[in-house]
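Listing 4. Sequential folding, example run.
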Amino acid sequence: MRLLFCLLPLLGASLACSATPPAPALEDRPVDTARPADAAPAPIVVPTVVARYPHDTGAFTQGLLWHKGSFYESTGQVGQSQIRQVRLADGKVLQSAAVRADVFGEGMALWKNDLVSLSWQNGTGWRWDRATLRQKSEFRYPGEGWGLTQDGRRLILSDGTAELRFLDPVTFAEQGRIRVTADGQPVMNLNELEYVKGEILANIWQTAMIARIDPATGRVKGWLDLRSLVAQVTVTDPDAVLNGIAYDAAKDRLFVTGKYWPSLFEIRIPK
């Protein structure tokens, strides 16, 4: 899908280009000179699996969100990209709409009654009616599109770099950016996003780690280590990596899945 960068120097040199990184050695982390001297490195926690549900192994998951009892999922690959409504219990696709056949679909967010979706390298996005999945409009934006979420005021877009963009949800005009760092180092390959309880959760592409990002500063407040969860997934395709975060605010449930995965997991973060 994309060229693999050597990632996450902040988590130790042994993590570069690794899909399931070893735990970082704290002494190997560079010093963040911008933070107080007594500030601890971002903690790493291992979520527990609460439940496991079926997931379509044909879905190259790019975006995932929960709304009023259903998942909405965007999938990728040229000629195969879709917007879908999916049932939790059995992973059945309740309805779907094809993304333009010449583009590679990417992340997606909900804004009011619309789903907003991205393309990877075409600089084109779309608005879809959530209830019918009818395409309503098309818009343009500069650069690549990877992940998308919203904080109730703005859309938040990742593009595979260490920056997140804040966008007007109506005009898509850029309203600002943050540079995401951990221990003073930029965090590259920010991918699928979900806004949860005042934090931006971000998959780090080609790893089993999810960053918990402070949207005001861009600093990583903590890491979710999902290596043990990834080990439960029997996939052999090298592109079948962790990607897809959804939050059910009404029931305080967090879900994750991956590209071509046979399962979707409900997880709980330790307090």
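-- end of first protein; second protein begins --
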Amino acid sequence: MAVTDALARIHAAFADAGVTGRLHALDIDSGAQLDAGADQPVCTASVHKLCLLVTLHEQAAAGILDLTEQVECPPQSRTTGPTGLAAMLDGARLSLRDLAYLMMSVSDNAAADLLLERVGLDAVNRSTARLGLGHTLAVHTFGELLATIKEDAGPGGARSLADPLVVTRLRALDPARSNRSTPRDMTRLLAAVWRDEACTPEHGAAIRRILGLQVWPHRLASGFPFDDVHVAGKTGSLPTVRNEVGVVEYPDGGRYAVAVFTRTARTSALLPAADAVIGTAARLAVDALRAP
């Protein structure tokens, strides 16, 4: 009954926030789950950086690369973005692991593409296939993804993305033509990381640490405003798309992987209710899984 009631409340919360939502929540230890469109294909946006992070650590564990390896980060031809190296003006030199930190903590597109230059899209797809994520595929680098948006938007540029008709033609928002997954695949990936099945325990701990350093509190974490509850996650955003996947850990040892993917009809960049409903839906799902 708790799950049935939670599903009804989750769907109502999505409707009230003006979003179409897909969600999967999983008790990492018991396997109990809650499914609200968990097998629907979704555009991952920057959530796909989690797949890249796992690949990076998988290769480090195999001795293919050294996470302390230094990478030159020239300002020319950096992938654009509002954070991290993508927003900086001068050259820098960083280790692979520090690039990974920027990629995950502030969703730095430039850092992500520098890492993709090192490991390759094919390696990312091999990693997700190895973990049984049959609906997860990286099609583009993040620079390529942004380039499709620019091309599809046409001569009006970023301002034209306020037009719903323009947004409907964006390839980046079509799971068949963009980086994609399902909510269930993402909780499966998170569970593998938390169980040390994705990488060795040393590298699993490093992945969990980085996920815990994300700076954005306005989506998943907003549903768990407690000092003794830890939320580690990764957001993803595109026009009309707001996503987050992560793990919620309670002081009694409960661990819950949650993936929430949403789309809005409105094209506004700032929609606080659409951000907040990710936390609301996640909290409803986790509360249902924790119910006696």
